[in-house]
Amino acid sequence: QVQLVESGGGLVQAGGSLRLSCAASGRTFSRRTMGWFRQAPGKEREFVAAIRWSGGATTYADSVKGRFTISRDNAKNTVYLQMNSLKPEDTAVYYCAATPGDYISIGDFGSWGQGTQVTVSS
Description:
Layout: E1 4-7, E2 10-13, E3 18-24, E4 33-39, E5 46-51, E6 58-60, E7 68-73, E8 78-83, E9 92-99, E10 111-112, E11 116-121
Parallel strand pairs: 2-11
Antiparallel strand pairs: 1-3, 3-8, 4-5, 4-9, 5-6, 7-8, 9-10, 9-11
């Protein structure tokens, strides 16, 4: 298991930017595919982005493609989510998650952070 702690959430106006960070414990971070998910009030948790440990390939949800960028720094055991051109519909609790494989369905992720709130005002 990997311990994950998110930070960087907050309140921002529409059109603004935020960068989320997720710090991971353990020596196996570099061999974990990392993902970001979000959950808005009354809605199910949904996939946002993922970056694979093998090769660093990235995948994005259509709703954030072109606005959000996921990246990782294996030396710092940290994964980031740069969010630009934020919209009110991006408002949610954002969760970081880790999986040892390359599959990125929500059920594949066994380690989760506690979440960080992102609120985008119109």
